[in-house]
Amino acid sequence: MxxxxxxxDPLSWENATGDADTMxxxxxxxxxxxxxxxxxxxxxxxxxxxxxxxxxxxxxLTRLAPLMKSAKTQLQEVKDHKQSESNGESGTDTxxxxxxxxxxxxxxxLGLSEQAVDEAFKDAAFKRGMKEADLEDPxxxxxxxxxxxxxxxxxLVGGAEPGSVSTKVQEIEDLRTSSINVIGRExxxxxxxxxxxxxxxxGYVDGxxxxxxxxxxxxxxxxxxxxxxxDPKEPLGRVLVEDPLAPNNxxxxxxxxxxxxxxxxxxxxxxxxxxxANALNLRDGDRERAGAMLVGxxxxxxxxxxxxxxxxxxxxxxxxxxxxxxxADKCPFQAHIRKTNPRGSGGFEPPKAERRHLxxxxxxxxxxxxxxxxxxxxxxxxxxxxxxxxxxxVDQFEFTQLNWANSSRFPKFGSEPAPGxxxxxxxxxxxxxxxxxxxxxxxxxxxxxxxxAVTMKxxxxxxxxxxxxxRSL
Length: 473
Ligand code: HEM
Description:
GO molecular function: heme binding; metal ion binding; peroxidase activity
Number of helices: 15
InterPro entries: Dimeric_a/b-barrel, DyP_N, Dyp_peroxidase
Family: Belongs to the DyP-type peroxidase family.
Protein name: DyP dimeric alpha+beta barrel domain-containing protein
Bound molecules: protoporphyrin IX containing FE
Order of helices and strands: HEHHEHHHHEHEEEHEEHHHHEEEHEEEH
Oligomer: single chain
Keywords: Heme, Iron, Metal-binding, Oxidoreductase, Peroxidase
Distance between the termini: 28 Å
Mean pLDDT: 96
Number of strands: 14
């Protein structure tokens, strides 16, 4: 079975044969399906030796390859784990995931010429890097030190248990020779709510809405959550591209990866929720709706466009669009999830074309919380390591941040006032926005925009190559 990047008939990994099966064995894990990464360590690497002496960098990467599991292994492990849990056993252990990405500078340090790299990779954002991106980010001089430097590679290690993740990190450290330097480290740590759902630091369920690529995942979603109103199915080409430098272009694929360290000022966000509730004169239980209007979901993940109060059934609902909320009387246009996935209601592109901006988010929270209930929440030191896989960074991550989140005029709707920036991640001049006072009723009130509570501290673009590429070095 050949690999099709455009087919809308989803690939069944269990029944894949020929090239499609080899592709899954050659692909890094965590791209087609998120890998467990409650404990996550990130190493940012610099290869000291110049392009004329690439041996150490090449050897390091070749030795790393055997520590990495393939997409196929990940999928099989998840299946075995679920099987043993349903048999009443404790669940088989899954090994940590190791992911590797290279920047353009990293490829040059492997001894490839500038021309070869420029011709091989099509993505303009990858080639220029995040430091040169025009996303209204803070100046690079304000980024954390590691991100100000030239990063050549990223290594991700993620798993369920801190012990096995640390052991794996040590194995990787042991492979380093003197010219392979760790210039930055990040530690991700999952946060969960009382029901065990993954949340981000503002307290909202995160990571729920994802494009799905595999037949088995789509079947599970249609049984558990439903896919009849919002179909999460996307072709493999939404995240995969041929690995241009790998031995076999029929079976070797990779993905462009974005990492952004986003610090969250939780105290400022709480204030924004309170200020909005006060400005709209929301009372008692209805005050929670203020935060839901900023995000587009209540803390428990209930979509605001579907109901005025939290508590929708489990699993967290994702089978919805904004078709019943065209004038945004329920969920405001500027709510984070409506901005970053208008689900066909953006007004600038036909619904099908609009979907090409979606990406596979694989973020993880960082920083430990010491505040208890009633304490003042932190103003810094915690946040989100935003990560996502793309087949085209310009059209997906950058488009979402720039043309949607940072644009006060998106989405477009008749002669309504401009929605304003995404209150969670919008960067740039924040104009006052209009918010529905009563859920589902037309009257809206203009309120000054909340201050930015998310600060970008640095980031970079990488290409996550196929395993045969790493082995071939
Ligand atoms: C969804 C929070 C950064 C894109 C969500 C959700 C939350 C959230 C709570 C709802 C859960 C879900 O639907 O899966 C945050 C926070 C961020 C952040 C606190 C920063 C600290 C970003 C960035 C982007 C982004 C940088 C992209 C530029 C998305 C997308 C969705 C989403 C595409 C799914 C929307 C949907 O399909 O309905 N985010 N996010 N987020 N976020 Fe973010």
